[in-house]
Amino acid sequence: MKFPSFLLFLVLSFTPVACGQEIPAGPILITELEQMYAVKLLQLRNETAGHIAGWPADNECDGALWSGIARAAGAEWVDVAAALRPDGRPTRKPLRDCITPDESATTTSNDMITGILLGLQSSGDAASVHRLYQYGERHDWIMGYPEWYLSRVLLRPNGVTLMARILYTLTDGKRDYTIRLAPVVYGPVDGDYEGHLLLLSRIIEKKAGGAQYGMEIAETLFAKAHPSDALAQAVAGNYLGAALLLTGEYKSPTYVRGDDVYHLVHWLLAARVTLDGILDN
């Protein structure tokens, strides 16, 4: 991918940078990020060779979340639909559940579903999104087991709305559910788990469109509170800041935990959002 020189000039001219910070030349910085991205994407491909459905980690209970992130980051070989049972029920591992309570307290959660939606949206898989939506409708949006653990297995209104919007955009309006017209509402968040969901939801929302309330403020505040989080900077539109972080000695935020490969997946998504943001703007 090549970026017009005038576009790079605008990006570098209007992005705030800390006083006294040495800034690499724009084209050099972006070219370096592009090259690093290509190398790291190939590294992920090599590390996942032989994994079920190509998932970054196919035997880990946060697998569904990170499979969707990987797909959105450009890992086109990842089959995110493997997170859905034939009836549409979401799982944490490809094609099977985590064994509760030994592995996980619930068979799914809102963060797993957010990752699944992000990945299915990125792959354009409207059929799988619709299967997930129908499962939710049939089960009053209780998406897994045990059913009494509502704080985890009940899909929140934001998730239902985003799913309806994804369906609407992927099917050119053929799948039109009224809930897509509801605003997606976010307030300021500070915790790493909630912040991660905010960032992923914002990526989905920017692609799917529709009414939102407070998301731009929330993402900006989260980025300011976490200046070393490259994904937060990229989602908030600070592409130069994100590029500088990613091409330096980058350390993943605290919400990146579990299998070591997730650090690589996080880097790739942050880089992809950064490069796409520069191209689109």
Give the ordered list of helices and strands: HHHHHHHEHEHHHH
**Euclidean distance between termini CA atoms:** 14 Å
Number of helices: 12
Summarize model confidence as the mean pLDDT.
90
Class per helix and strand makeup: mainly alpha
Query: Which band does the percent of strand residues land in?
Result: under 5%
Give the neighbour order of strands across the main sheet: 1-2
Walk me through this protein's architecture.
The protein has 281 residues and is mainly alpha-helical. It has one domain. Helices cover 53% and strands 1% of the residues. The chain has 12 helices and 2 strands; from the N terminus they run αααααααβαβαααα. It has helices spanning 5-14, 26-47, 63-72, 110-123, 126-138, 150-153, 157-170, 192-208, 215-225, 230-235, 239-246, 261-280, and strands at 184-185, 212-213. Strand 1 (184-185), helix 8 and strand 2 (212-213) form a beta-alpha-beta unit. Helix 5 packs antiparallel against helix 7 and helix 7 (157-170) runs parallel beside helix 8. It is globular and about 50 Å long.
